[in-house]
Amino acid sequence: MNKDSNKSSQKDKKRKTELAVFIRNLNLFLKEQGDNVHLKKLRGREGYYDPATEEIAIDYRKEFLSTLVHEVIHHLHPYWSENKVVQKEREIMNTITVRQCKNIIVMVARYI
Q1: Domains and CATH numbers, the chain
Q2: Under a CB-based contact definition with an 8 Å cutoff, are residues 100 and 23 in contact?
Q3: What's the chain's average pLDDT?
Q4: Residues whose CB falls within 8 Å of the CB of residue 39, separated by 6 or more in sequence, listed in order
Q5: In terms of DSSP bridges, do strands 47-50 and 55-59 run parallel, antiparallel, or are they unpaired?
Q6: Which residue in 66, 63, 69 sits closest to 29, CA to CA?
Q7: Percent of the chain beyond pLDDT 70?
Q8: DSSP code of residue 110
Q9: Long-range contacts for 19-27 (Cβ within 8 Å, ≥24 apart)?
């Protein structure tokens, strides 16, 4: 195995570990705050996170899963810039498996 493939393998492993931590934190958020996740018709945005009420609202007509991931990242990292949140959202959405997507949808369905 050459150096480049070893670095790539380590990077993939790190992303998978970070994804597992994110999914665990999402599950904890839903168990504690699941009643604060709402589907709504929103104007001009796909979703929002209100740190004062810990409410997450998602426009059900838009991209549900990536919006949920994005808003939960805001909850987990309230001081991150929007650019950093978007970057992490893309990383998660590019790493997540179909099975993980299904599991997240089942978890969220219990609360919405």
Answers
A1: 3-109 (3.30.2010)
A2: yes
A3: 90
A4: 57, 58, 59, 60, 112
A5: antiparallel
A6: 69
A7: 95
A8: T
A9: 19/92, 19/95, 19/96, 19/100, 22/69, 22/72, 22/73, 22/76, 22/92, 23/100, 23/103, 23/104, 25/72, 25/76, 26/69, 26/72, 26/104, 26/107, 27/107
DSSP string, 15-79: HHHHHHHHHHHHHHHHHHHGGGEEEE--SS-SEEEETTTTEEEEETTS-HHHHHHHHHHHHH-TT
| Closest among 73, 76, 79, 94 to 15, alpha carbons compared | 94
The span from the CA of 43 to the CA of 86, in Å, is 20
CA distance 22 to 4: 27
Distance between CA atoms of residues 10 and 23, nearest Å: 20
- pLDDT mean over 31-54: 92
Question: Amino acid identity of 12?
Answer: D
**pLDDT above 90 coverage of the chain, percent:** 70
The model's pTM is 0.86
